[in-house]
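Working notes for the structural subgroup meeting. M.R. asked for a predicted model of this chain before we commit to crystallization trials. I am recording the input and output together here so anyone reviewing the notebook later can reproduce the run.

Input as submitted:
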Amino acid sequence: MLWQSLVTLVGPEHAVRIFGVTLVGVTAETGRKVLLSLVVVAVLALLARGVEALSRLALSGDSHVQTRFYWRQGVRLAVGVVGLLALLSIWFDDPTRITTAAGLVTAGVAIALQRVITAFAAWFIILRGRLLRVGDRIVMGGVPSDVISLGFLRTTIMEMGQPPPVQSAEPAIWVEARQYTGRIVTVTNDKIFDEAVCNYTRDFPYIWEEMHLPVPYTADRERAERILLAAAEHHTVKTTELGAEALRELRRRYLVDSPEMKPRVYWQLTDNWLAMSVRFVTRDRGVREIKDAMSREILSELTKAGIQVASTTFEVTGLPPVQVSLEERSRAQARQRA
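Returned structure, recorded in token form:
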């Protein structure tokens, strides 16, 4: 047939010859290795998908989100290692050739893929070092966010806004609270070696927050303080609700003193008013809703107590003497009469 005359196998290794040209390295054995490699990759891919599907069925529900994530990561890593070993055994049947090839490949990869290797190494540190997990609220790469996916090379995060006092970050954020902006950001894992990673939820799922209220010096200051404390105790985390186990774990892992947990009001003297700051403990999420409820209650109670919120005012204590000359006006009137 025509194709048999155009494509032939020659020599003891059955090298492929096309149009009389022998292709270097393309032999019947090479074709069998390529076919076997494709079969191995396909089988491993199907096996990985099957195991992940079984894990989703066995570990369904929101309570097993972390377990499903680590199980999926473990399956992918195991499949990758098994696949690499299988391909090496198919293509390199001589151990000396494997050693030589591995040395050349390692040297080339180390030079060309430094950042990739660093990111992959950072993935192991993230998992073993308990830096962050899926679902944690963090600041990574300068982006405040929640972790929604953790890959071998990249961490995918859902960006959230920041309160106005900390909105100087780039890129600009238009949401003035720790709520989602809708942007999904991808950060390479190697950022953990270059920048600090702030974690809101890893060991202690509570944060300290503050609200500030300017009160006139002539107002009932003690009543204003009681209103602030009542609102904080009503809407924020009760001391009895704080996880004693979480506190013990925090003190066990780190050298920290026993922090103040009860709401407290601090006073600060200014030129215009008395600045009251109420400090309280709340959970890492839902802070904006809590502050909104506290603001409504505080404003209502201040109105009932007849206490106004202070604002910048100016008091005129004196004026320079003013002289008004009527001479020019009198002349104009005389010319009109004339």
